[in-house]
């Protein structure tokens, strides 16, 4: 039996960043780190609902990579690595951002971000060609490392400090982003090491270990989820840009000459993944890099339209064989792969070579933020009839059931007549399979609202009829419809809706 409450949806709207930040804190998704000590800039903690949502997103990515692809396996590399790793990768000498200070406000900014924001302003005003010209010129100047030219471009574009409202800028200079520390019991004997600024190098230095132990043949991929650390000067927009963050990366090793094909394949695969997860196509776009690393063949970002504009969420890069070649040179250990397959042109085995790499790298925190922004929904509804009719705004998180922090909430209608005991019995029967909670406090309407605000897809109500015929009312978050069903069907019903299979089957 289905029972739909009266509802007229006049419109639905999305939240501003300020609303989403406030919601995230109030409902246990994200807290400012060490807030009782007034916090630490650009560092955040994930609360009870946030950690569940983030873990679900990570698990979904992990399974999509390693479970759906027979030729992708995973590792978990250490955060600390031998210092030569970062010399070989170029991070010691070249991992920096162009910074500029405003002499009046004493505030520091990333020069490229100032120019990108100006281009976004042009784009918003419909001046697409002007935006593209600005980004192309910025890319050219950064490629040739003409920092004086970058400063002049900022001046020519009449970009002002948002605080002082002046254009009194210093010269542009490079600022290294790596955190360093010491290893060793005695300070004098310590060696300088770094907190990794990316997770990719842990994959590269383990290339042959993984290839041999997992019995993989090129092409194959190595996936990893892990923390990385960057001393961001301009760290803002909530969890979008932080000093401690989490990456979900996959390095795909391919035969030289096939990298373009695999680059296009992973580019399309990753865009499709985000759409199936629930991010709409019109809020996603590809953005080709204006400035390429000297070793890169191609690079593109998948951008999502956050409340503060289109910003990078994931990068797909064709990295050639630069990383493995560098590690071979600095470690003096061969990083070659022997390919026994036959080259159709020569009729001989491909033999030894250093594979090329196609990388997919998505920020777990940025994906979390995009998911939260997309899910945040304010809906105008009409309830009741006649004189009792009223219009109000309903706020809820329209999360895909597979990633929702809590899959179902179980409510006894009242705290008597055996209903709490029956609700607990249902809770115990489901908790081994799903993240469920039992709630007895407040009126039933307030309990529904609470679960809507944290994105719970199902609320299960135990009432007097339950004690008579072993049926319950299941209330659906998005439609607010209510369905009566036997308790014995709950596990299969919920399991069908929250299974990752509902996402995987669309990939």
TrEMBL record:
CDD domains: GlyRS-like_core (cd00774). One of its GO terms (molecular function) is glycine-tRNA ligase activity. It is found in: Cytoplasm. The keyword Protein biosynthesis applies. It catalyses: tRNA(Gly) + glycine + ATP = glycyl-tRNA(Gly) + AMP + diphosphate. Keywords: Aminoacyl-tRNA synthetase, ATP-binding, Cytoplasm, Ligase, Nucleotide-binding, Protein biosynthesis. InterPro entries: aa-tRNA-synt_IIb, aa-tRNA-synth_II, aa-tRNA-synth_II/BPL/LPL, Anticodon-bd, Anticodon-bd_dom_sf, Gly-tRNA_synthase/POLG2, Gly_tRNA_ligase_bac, GlyRS-like_core. ATP binds at residues 230-232, 240-245, 363-366. It comes from the Bacteria. Substrate binds at residues 110, 198, 245-249, 359-363. SUPFAM superfamilies: Class II aaRS ABD-related, Class II aaRS and biotin synthetases. It holds the Pfam family tRNA-synt_2b. Residues 134-401 form the Aminoacyl-transfer RNA synthetases class-II family profile domain. The keyword Aminoacyl-tRNA synthetase applies. Its EC number is 6.1.1.14. HAMAP family: Gly_tRNA_synth_B. Catalyzes the attachment of glycine to tRNA(Gly). Homodimer. Belongs to the class-II aminoacyl-tRNA synthetase family. This is Glycine--tRNA ligase. It comes from Hymenobacter lucidus.
